[in-house]
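Writing this down once: the sequence line spells out the residues, with the fold written below as integer tokens. I am pasting one below:
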Amino acid sequence: MAFRFMIALLVAFCLIVALQMTGALGVIGTVYRSWTLKRLAHGDVESIAQARRYLNSKDVLVRSAAAGAFGRIGLVDAEALSELIAKVKTDVPQVASSAAWSLGFVKLNGPGDDNDTAYQAEVLDTLIRALSHKDSRVRGSAAHSISIYGTRGIDAKRATTALIKCLPDQRMGYLAARALGDIGAKDSAEEIAAILEGATWGIQQEAAVALSKLRPLPKEVQAQFDELIENDDGVREAVEYSLRISN
């Protein structure tokens, strides 16, 4: 019995050494940490420290999961907020995208901070700059977060110009259209209507939903919109969809 136990220990030891030498243990550790960070509970203040611990990990996968964890928690402290903003500005696209996504959802943890808009202005500045990022994942996450700001009742209309510039972007223009609708950017109605004709279904859908949120539309835009509804099956289906979800 003792002999079998020693053999089992020896085999286990050899297996651990082999895994260590091949780097498999590191991969397993990375996957496990990433998996854990992606499952932090919403509103769990104690998880903020855990997410911060891995924000500067040498592993991109772990860093990205840590940056995204704050959006799932929904809370940050001042230090973590500063680090997220820095990640959007300076880190690799995978991490910057996760950080930009989180910025739309987080609130400062602390008494009275929910009513303090100072940090929101800094976050919005960061997201507006991120809309011109060279990587479409970062641009898309920034537009999504600005959209979330709009649904949270935070005034984000000064992002209008930057979002309009993103409308022709085939990779994330639909997110820009969604954001313009969510922030109530009525001045963008003409530009949103312009991308309806000949666009893909996804872009048409988001543009139609956005226009439905910006009513009443200017007469010229409404006339164009009505003509497209009559002559373009894709636009008509998108409008019908927007009416269903808005009622």
